[in-house]
């Protein structure tokens, strides 16, 4: 197999450095003609070689002085010619896996936000940038919390407009932790808008690629983002109802699944403002229930709502929501139970059975009827 000569050189250098027969600073000196060359393509090759070396060193090998030098060097290279940026991102990605000196996470993230227009980079380079940011968040959260507004704004700006499905899958997987741990403050609505623009997910995977991201994968991870914090409820629920009321089947399915996530992650008081409107929209799919997938999704969403309203922690006003909702459920099912042609009988019993299984309180109320 043919190996790039720069990669071969990098692997050999990494081996010598890890065996203590060669120092990192010596390598940088030997790469000096490339790293300082007036030709940006040669500078790119020099930085790429250094990045490959770092990527092949043990993560605990370099000391604080070497790491401080690398952080300063790579942050400065982010100001370089645009063709040098991808190699620099690879170098930073290799460096952040190591135990960085204090405040390095702030220096790196600030330099990235100031000097790299994320959405102008190639797909793989955007992925490297996202990986750097979330690695820093995971390892140095306490440091980054001290610059929360700047870091939050930088992340929002970086991800805004992403279209690659694999990158989106990575973002949707990582963003819930980011949203939960970094107070969004006045950027709450902006953060929600950046992720909600993908809802409902409109994407078709390539059937010829078994490893490709699917629409269902993206939709499932996006649910966790849209319901990550209670503060999102007043933005999420109107959007959910709008899409549930649409004529698009996929939008309805995603909305019903999102409603289940909302019941798990939002407070009862947030759902209590909309529960009768939500039930009105769901009942259109429950009876007669001709679309089995939509019907099943509606039953699960209704069951989640009933469980949420069955909590003993609700106050006197909120405690009325469960019997009011169940009264509406019973009225819907009653006509089906009395259907002499039995077309609606089975769908009606399915609704009653699902709701009685949701909670003991719901079972007691409906059985008494």
UniProtKB/TrEMBL annotation:
Residues 28-287 form the MMS19 N-terminal domain. It comes from the Eukaryota. Gene3D superfamilies: Leucine-rich Repeat Variant. InterPro entries: ARM-like, ARM-type_fold, MMS19, MMS19_N. Keywords: Cytoplasm, Cytoskeleton, DNA damage, DNA repair, Nucleus. It is found in: Cytoplasm, Cytoskeleton, Spindle; Nucleus. Its main location: cytoplasm. Belongs to the MET18/MMS19 family. Key component of the cytosolic iron-sulfur protein assembly (CIA) complex, a multiprotein complex that mediates the incorporation of iron-sulfur cluster into apoproteins specifically involved in DNA metabolism and genomic integrity. In the CIA complex, MMS19 acts as an adapter between early-acting CIA components and a subset of cellular target iron-sulfur proteins. Component of the CIA complex. This is MMS19 nucleotide excision repair protein.
């Amino acid at each position: 197999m043919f190996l790039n000569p720069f990669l071969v050189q990098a692997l050999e250098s990494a081996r010598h450095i890890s065996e203590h027969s060669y120092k990192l600073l010596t390598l940088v000196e030997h790469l000096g003609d490339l790293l300082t060359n007036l030709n940006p393509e040669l500078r790119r090759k020099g930085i790429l070689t250094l990045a490959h070396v770092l990527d092949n060193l043990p993560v605990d090998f370099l000391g604080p002085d070497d790491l401080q030098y690398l952080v300063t060097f790579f942050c400065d290279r982010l100001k370089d010619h645009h063709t040098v940026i991808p190699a620099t991102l690879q170098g930073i990605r290799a460096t952040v896996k190591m135990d960085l000196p204090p405040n390095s996470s702030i220096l790196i993230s600030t330099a990235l936000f100031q000097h790299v227009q994320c959405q102008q980079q190639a797909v793989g380079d955007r992925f490297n940038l996202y990986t750097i940011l979330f690695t820093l968040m995971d390892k140095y959260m306490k440091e980054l919390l001290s610059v929360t507004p700047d870091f939050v704004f930088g992340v929002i700006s970086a991800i805004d407009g992403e279209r690659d499905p694999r990158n989106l899958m990575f973002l949707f997987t990582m963003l819930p932790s980011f949203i939960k741990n970094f107070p969004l403050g006045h950027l709450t609505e902006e953060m929600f808008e950046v992720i909600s623009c993908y809802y409902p997910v409109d994407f078709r995977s390539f059937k010829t690629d078994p490893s490709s991201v699917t629409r269902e994968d993206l939709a499932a991870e996006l649910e966790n983002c849209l319901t990550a914090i209670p503060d999102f409820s007043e933005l999420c629920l109107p959007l959910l109802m709008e899409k549930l009321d649409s004529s698009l089947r996929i939008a309805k399915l995603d909305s019903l699944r999102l409603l289940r996530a909302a019941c798990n992650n939002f407070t009862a008081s947030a759902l209590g403002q909309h529960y009768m409107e939500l039930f009105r929209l769901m009942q259109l799919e429950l009876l007669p229930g001709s679309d089995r997938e939509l019907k099943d999704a509606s039953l699960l969403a209704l069951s989640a709502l009933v469980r949420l309203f069955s909590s003993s922690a609700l106050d006197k006003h909120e405690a009325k929501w469960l019997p009011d909702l169940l009264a509406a459920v019973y009225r819907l099912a009653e006509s089906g139970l009395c259907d002499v042609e039995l077309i609606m009988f089975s769908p009606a019993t399915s609704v009653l059975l699902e709701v009685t299984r949701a909670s003991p309180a719901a079972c007691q109320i409906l059985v008494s009827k």
